[in-house]
TrEMBL record:
Family: Belongs to the peroxisomal membrane protein PXMP2/4 family.
Any matching Pfam family: Mpv17_PMP22
GO biological process terms, semicolon-separated: regulation of mitochondrial DNA metabolic process
UniProt keyword Cytoplasm present: no
GO cellular component: membrane; mitochondrion
Statement: the UniProt record of this protein carries the keyword Ubl conjugation: no
Compartmental location: Membrane
Protein name from the UniProt record: Mitochondrial inner membrane protein Mpv17
Length: 165
C-alpha cells in the first residue's frame, strides 16, 4: 500500500513524467516476462538490449503518444458515464487505435521483423473491452497505467513473437 501511495503522490506531482516512465517500465517488464517465463532463457541468456529496446519504445513512443491521446480524448468527450465511456471506446478503437497500432507495429516490425498482420485479429479481441472498462472506471491520470498493466501481457506476446527464432 505504501508503494501505491508513493506512486499516487508522484503521479499528482509529475503526471506526464510518471505516465511515460510507467509505460516504459511496463513494456520492459513485458519483455522480461517474455524472455524468462515464455522463452525460458534464464538470466545468463537474457538479452538486456532487447529489454532496453522495449522499455525505450515505451518511454519514447507508447507513453507520450497514448498519454497525449487520453488527454485529447477527455477534452473531446468529457465525463465518465457509461455513455461517455462507450463514446470514448468507439473513438479510441475506431480512429486512434488503427493509426497508433499501424505506427507501433511498423516501428517494432522495423526493429524486430514483426508482422502487423499476424497481430491484428488478437488486438481487436482484447483492446475494445479493456478500453471500455478503462474509460468508464478509471480516472484520466491512471488510464495509461491501467492500459500498460494489461499491455504487460500483450507486450510479452509481442516481444516473444518478434524475437522467436
Amino acid at each position: 500500500m505504501a508503494l501505491w501511495r508513493a506512486y499516487q503522490r508522484a503521479l499528482n506531482a509529475h503526471p506526464w513524467k510518471v505516465q511515460v516512465l510507467t509505460a516504459g517500465s511496463l513494456m520492459g517488464l513485458g519483455d522480461i516476462i517474455s524472455q524468462q517465463l515464455v522463452e525460458r532463457r534464464g538470466v545468463r541468456k537474457h538479452q538486456i538490449s532487447r529489454t532496453l529496446t522495449m522499455a525505450s519504445l515505451g518511454c519514447g513512443f507508447v507513453g507520450p503518444v497514448i498519454g497525449g491521446w487520453y488527454k485529447v480524448l477527455d477534452r473531446l468527450i468529457p465525463g465518465t458515464t457509461k455513455v461517455d465511456a462507450l463514446k470514448k471506446m468507439l473513438l479510441d478503437q475506431g480512429c486512434f487505435a488503427p493509426c497508433f497500432l499501424g505506427s507501433f507495429l511498423s516501428l517494432i516490425g522495423a526493429l524486430n521483423g514483426l508482422s502487423a498482420r499476424d497481430n491484428w485479429a488478437k488486438l481487436r479481441r482484447l483492446w475494445p473491452a479493456v478500453q471500455l472498462a478503462n474509460f468508464y472506471l478509471v480516472p484520466l491520470y491512471y488510464r495509461l497505467a491501467v492500459v500498460q498493466c494489461v499491455a504487460v501481457i500483450w507486450n510479452s506476446y509481442l516481444s516473444w513473437k518478434a524475437h522467436r527464432f
